[in-house]
């Protein structure tokens, strides 16, 4: 069937609300969805999308929504970016699959070359390509365990690493990710993270506290790896205080522990650097990436020191679809956009715009207890009148108002009280400013 509507950057870059949201056409489809899709699959906003591009999503009722989600930090280069779509189409016409473990192709190796160049550190690096973030984290643990001959995995409070069995064990929050899904994998240990809004510790003090916990409760000689999101994503866009990550990385090096940065949400220009670790010059031994790497196609990777990556026996890493040629073509197109349009600078500009506006809103609304994040990964933590107690109800109400007004916002956080903003890095500043106006209005309306 020919597609009459085309997405991508040609889609009119405007907010336009022509029906209730969700409108009648979406509501009709939602009934069909309920009949056919498992109830356990959630939805933030029950509209059906027919086209998307730049900073907007257009639904089947003709509403044009400002996108502050990017499909959870995926479409940084914009939805249906021509550089991605064209390469995907061309590759799909050549061949769609061979299985890289059966016969090789250039796209896979090209993506590994880009990863070696772009990820932190000048050492020799190698990669394995996979399908999802959780699968990348699982593989990082396999590699760290083989390299060290140790079992224990250390993760942090408020961490999110995925929904597979091992990564559920690593994820902190019970509902909705873990409830009823156990038993969970063994040898996963949790340490406290630096959380400036809720602790009084400097970054180094918080790191010492975490290290002490690990040494007392696990024993550093048993630890294969520490896995940390340099900015914790689903857990509430928690930015560890300066010095926390470098101290932890130093301790890992001294202790023979593999330092794994999970940059699945923070990677590929989102924070205004290629990777969030770059901000403090932290060089992880292994880095997991996914989401933003391929402009919306499923692709993930573990990249790391060649000697660590190569500790795994031949045939020990892989999977049918990992590094699928169409997904690799998409990644090469996406990375081309990041370079040619300097999306790191774009992310920084968007961040300044958002933080500036959020400060104004916070001035009038004490419900905003904290504004944090980096680049185009920004959030506000909402609290009650005491300035401390989490207020998830307010976060939900503000988000609901934004949705009704045609702005797609997301919430997150261990308490569900964090509103997060993840616009595509190619969104126009005007559109983002308009979204912030709607947000300001949402705070006033829900006060
Ligand atoms: N590590 C840091 O952010 C995915 C989860 C959405 P997958 N975050 C979005 C949801 O509710 O399932 C994520 C992440 C970090 C790992 C993952 C997992 O990546 O591609 O969803 O498996």
Provide the fold topology.
Elements: H1 24-36, E1 49-53, E2 56-59, E3 64-67, H2 70-73, H3 82-94, H4 106-118, E4 125-130, H5 133-148, E5 152-156, H6 165-170, E6 188-191, H7 203-217, E7 223-228, H8 244-255, E8 258-262, E9 286-289, E10 300-305, H9 306-309, H10 325-340, H11 343-364, E11 368-374, E12 377-382, H12 392-404, E13 407-408, E14 410-412, E15 418-421, H13 429-445
Parallel strand pairs: 3-13, 5-6, 5-7, 7-8, 8-9
Antiparallel strand pairs: 1-2, 2-3, 4-10, 9-10, 11-12, 12-15, 14-15
Helix pairs in contact: 3-10, 4-10, 7-8, 11-13, 12-13
The structure holds ligand PLZ.
Structure description:
- The chain is α/β, with parallel strands linked by helices.
- The chain has 2 domains: 8-80 and 343-446, Aspartate Aminotransferase, domain 1; 83-340, Aspartate Aminotransferase, domain 2 (3-Layer(aba) Sandwich), CATH 3.40.640.
- It has 13 helices and 15 strands.
- The protein has helices spanning 24-36, 70-73, 82-94, 106-118, 133-148, 165-170, 203-217, 244-255, 306-309, 325-340, 343-364, 392-404, 429-445, and strands spanning 49-53, 56-59, 64-67, 125-130, 152-156, 188-191, 223-228, 258-262, 286-289, 300-305, 368-374, 377-382, 407-408, 410-412, 418-421.
- Strands 4-10-9-8-7-5-6 form a 7-stranded mixed beta sheet, with helices on both faces. Strands 1-2-3-13 form a 4-stranded mixed beta sheet.
- Helix 11 (343-364) runs parallel beside helix 13 (429-445).
- The radius of gyration is 21 Å and the shape is globular.
- The N and C termini lie far apart (48 Å).
- The relative contact order is 0.16.
- The model has no long low-confidence stretch (mean pLDDT 97).
- Ligand PLZ is lined by residues 72, 132-134, 137, 160-163, 229, 233-234, 262, 264-265, 290.
- The site of ligand PLZ has 16 residues, from helix 5.
């Amino acid at each position: 069937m020919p597609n009459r509507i085309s997405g991508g950057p040609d889609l009119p870059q405007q907010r336009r609300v022509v029906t209730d949201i969700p409108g009648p056409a979406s509501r009709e489809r939602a009934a069909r969805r309920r009949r056919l899709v498992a109830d356990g699959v959630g939805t933030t906003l029950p509209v059906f999308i027919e086209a998307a591009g730049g900073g907007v999503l257009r639904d089947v009722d003709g509403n044009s929504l400002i996108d502050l989600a990017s499909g959870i930090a995926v479409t940084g280069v914009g939805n249906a970016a021509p550089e991605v779509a064209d390469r995907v189409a061309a590759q799909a016409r050549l061949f769609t699959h061979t299985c890289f473990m059966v016969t090789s192709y250039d796209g896979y190796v090209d993506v590994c070359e880009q990863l070696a160049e772009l990820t932190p550190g000048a050492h020799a690096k190698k990669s394995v390509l996979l399908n999802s973030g959780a699968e990348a984290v699982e593989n990082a643990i396999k590699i760290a365990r083989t390299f060290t001959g140790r079992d224990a995995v250390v993760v942090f409070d408020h961490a999110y690493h995925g929904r597979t069995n091992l990564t559920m064990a690593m994820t902190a929050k019970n509902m909705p990710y873990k409830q009823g899904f156990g038993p969970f994998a063994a040898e996963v240990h949790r340490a406290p993270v630096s959380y400036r809004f809720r602790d009084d510790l400097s970054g180094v003090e918080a790191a010492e506290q975490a290290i002490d916990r690990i040494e007392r409760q696990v024993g550093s000689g048993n630890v294969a790896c520490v896995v940390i999101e340099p900015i914790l994503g689903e857990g509430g866009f928690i930015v560890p205080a300066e010095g926390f990550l470098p101290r932890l990385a130093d301790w890992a090096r001294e202790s023979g522990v593999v330092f794994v940065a999970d940059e699945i949400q923070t990677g590929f220009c989102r924070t205004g650097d290629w990777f969030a670790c770059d901000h403090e010059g932290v060089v992880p031994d292994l880095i997991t990436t996914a989401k933003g790497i391929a402009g919306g196609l499923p692709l993930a990777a573990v990249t790391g020191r060649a000697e660590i990556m190569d500790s795994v026996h031949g045939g020990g890493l892989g999977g049918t679809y990992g590094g699928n040629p169409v997904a690799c073509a998409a990644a090469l197109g996406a990375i081309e956009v990041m370079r040619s349009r300097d999306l790191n600078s774009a992310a920084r500009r968007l961040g300044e715009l958002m933080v500036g506006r959020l400060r104004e809103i916070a001035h009038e609304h004490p419900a905003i207890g904290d504004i944090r994040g980096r680049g185009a990964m920004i959030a506000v933590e909402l609290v009650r009148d005491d300035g401390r107690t989490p207020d998830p109800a307010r976060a939900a109400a503000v988000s609901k108002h934004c949705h009704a007004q045609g702005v797609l916002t997301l919430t997150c956080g261990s308490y569900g009280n964090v509103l997060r903003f993840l616009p595509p890095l190619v969104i126009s500043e005007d559109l983002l400013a308009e979204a912030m106006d709607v947000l300001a209005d949402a705070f006033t309306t829900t006060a």
